[in-house]
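Build the 3D complex.
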Amino acid sequence: KQEVTQIPAALSVPEGENLVLNCSFTDSAIYNLQWFRQDPGKGLTSLLLIQSSQREQTSGRLNASLDKSSGRSTLYIAASQPGDSATYLCALITNAGKSTFGDGTTLTVKP
Amino acid sequence: DAGVTQSPTHLIKTRGQQVTLRCSPKSGHDTVSWYQQALGQGPQFIFQYYEEEERQRGNFPDRFSGHQFPNYSSELNVNALLLGDSALYLCASSLLTGGYSYGYTFGSGTRLTVV
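Done.
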């Protein structure tokens, strides 16, 4: 059974700081790994998708990496801004279409 | 380009009642997945529909059922509602044609409160 852990559960940083969010998983038989952000009471917004054969993806100030051998993914946010404050979730998706989410890291970026 | 649309946005039901939630996938997507998200937790996978069939199912009781229509839209039905069913219900669509998935696009969710 796939288990996904995101540490830390909450993180508070000053504006401008670079930061790393962690996602670890127990079953490396994944198809895709996807990072999302969620604002309070809202749906999920896709940030980055990494296919099983890839090692990283970049979009603007965001960079996500995937290391299947160690069961880890990281989301790097450069030059954080108050607008980045949200909960960040990672999801592991199997070939069969089943998905498992972590409980997220709630990020607060202070002006 | 319309994204994933869910209705209604909010709903209040009484214990024991039945509820139907609706989802229209993003244009060009053929697969719909449903999730339950309790406060402070990540989404829990309920089931996924593809070609009008339930393709995968998570650990949810039979009170949770669904349907996918020929136009790819989907419904989630929950019978005999319990207080514990109160949550944000999320729908996600993806393109699975040819066995390849381009990842999930989520709707804004339906907030269900059971009293």
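Chain A has a mean pLDDT of 93.
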